[in-house]
Amino acid sequence: MTNIIARIKEEKPLVHHITNYVTTNESANVTLYWGGLPVMAHFKEEVAAMVESAAALVLNIGVLDDEQVEAMIRAGKKANQLEIPVILDPVGAGATDIRTDVAKELMSELDLAVIKGNQGEITVLSGGKAEMSGVESIGEYSKIEQDALNLAQQQDVVVVVSGAEDIVTDGQEVKRINRGHPLMGQVVGTGCMLSSTLGVFCGVEKDYLAASIAAVTAYGIAGEKASQEAERPASYKIALQDNISMVNDDDLIDL
Amino acid sequence: MTNIIARIKEEKPLVHHITNYVTTNESANVTLYWGGLPVMAHFKEEVAAMVESAAALVLNIGVLDDEQVEAMIRAGKKANQLEIPVILDPVGAGATDIRTDVAKELMSELDLAVIKGNQGEITVLSGGKAEMSGVESIGEYSKIEQDALNLAQQQDVVVVVSGAEDIVTDGQEVKRINRGHPLMGQVVGTGCMLSSTLGVFCGVEKDYLAASIAAVTAYGIAGEKASQEAERPASYKIALQDNISMVNDDDLIDL
Amino acid sequence: MTNIIARIKEEKPLVHHITNYVTTNESANVTLYWGGLPVMAHFKEEVAAMVESAAALVLNIGVLDDEQVEAMIRAGKKANQLEIPVILDPVGAGATDIRTDVAKELMSELDLAVIKGNQGEITVLSGGKAEMSGVESIGEYSKIEQDALNLAQQQDVVVVVSGAEDIVTDGQEVKRINRGHPLMGQVVGTGCMLSSTLGVFCGVEKDYLAASIAAVTAYGIAGEKASQEAERPASYKIALQDNISMVNDDDLIDL
Question: Which residues take part in binding substrate (chains A, B, C) (predicted)?
Answer without folding.
Answer: 40, 189
